[in-house]
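Key result, reporting period 2: structure in, sequence out.
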């Protein structure tokens, strides 16, 4: 198993039991996301973790496919779907870089708290753009760490050597928006919730 997959699998149980730190922000993001749903929508969430958000969205759309690099996360997600009796969702192990999706087939792709964790965000964003139907929507929540956060890099490097933290890429919100625009997206809305280290929420749209 890949090093990142192992890291995330090892913490999957703890992750599934951790509480959402800012419920108000989380709920606002759910609400904004749902404003782009329609009952016939087919959506993909990459880096879905233990599937909590995908499971909340599933009753509002036709089909949810949710993927994650870590088998440990997917195992828990499947158990939750089974326990909650949610049938229009499938969970599978796949990397954000390698997920196999037909071009132009999806209404929406979600990447929540993920794109700062991948090696090549531009490649992933380009691939997402291809997967979407014309007019499709890409919704992401990304830790855009720049400025003073760069001081954290040596600490994170040590933590990573010790296997205590995952790989984290550092880039600014401006660089993130530039990646989206370079892939062909237009920005529908963006929101940086108040508070230290909050993830940057962006709704991006493929031309219709
Ligand atoms: C911070 S968690 C976020 C989980 C979930 N999206 C959420 O918001 O609660 C990051 C997730 O991304 C997954 N992940 C990390 N690198 C990945 C990659 N290259 N491809 C797919 N998933 C990845 C991890 O296994 C983990 O479940």
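The corresponding designed sequence is given below.
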């Amino acid at each position: 198993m890949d090093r990142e997959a192992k890291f995330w699998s090892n913490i999957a149980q703890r992750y599934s039991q951790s509480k959402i730190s800012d419920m108000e922000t989380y709920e606002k993001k759910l609400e904004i996301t749902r404003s782009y749903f329609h009952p016939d929508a087919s959506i993909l969430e990459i880096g879905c973790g233990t599937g909590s958000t995908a499971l909340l969205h599933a009753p509002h759309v036709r089909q949810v496919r949710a993927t994650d690099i870590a088998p440990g996360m997917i195992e828990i997600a499947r158990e939750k779907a089974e326990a909650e009796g949610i049938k229009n969702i499938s969970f599978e192990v796949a990397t954000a870089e390698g997920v196999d999706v037909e071009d132009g087939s999806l209404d929406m792709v979600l990447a929540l708290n993920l794109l700062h964790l991948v090696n090549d965000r531009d490649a992933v964003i380009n691939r997402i753009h291809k997967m979407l139907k014309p007019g499709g929507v890409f919704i992401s929540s990304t830790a855009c760490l720049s400025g003073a956060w760069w001081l954290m890099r040596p600490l994170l490097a040590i933590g990573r050597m010790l296997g205590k933290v995952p790989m984290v890429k550092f880039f600014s919100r401006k660089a993130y928006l530039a990646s989206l625009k370079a892939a062909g997206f237009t920005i529908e809305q963006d929101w940086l919730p108040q508070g230290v280290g909050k993830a940057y929420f962006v709704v991006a749209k493929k031309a219709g």
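The helical segments are 3-10, 12-17, 23-34, 52-57, 71-84, 121-131, 153-161, 173-183. Residues 71-84 form the longest helix (14 residues). This case is discussed further under Risks and Mitigation.
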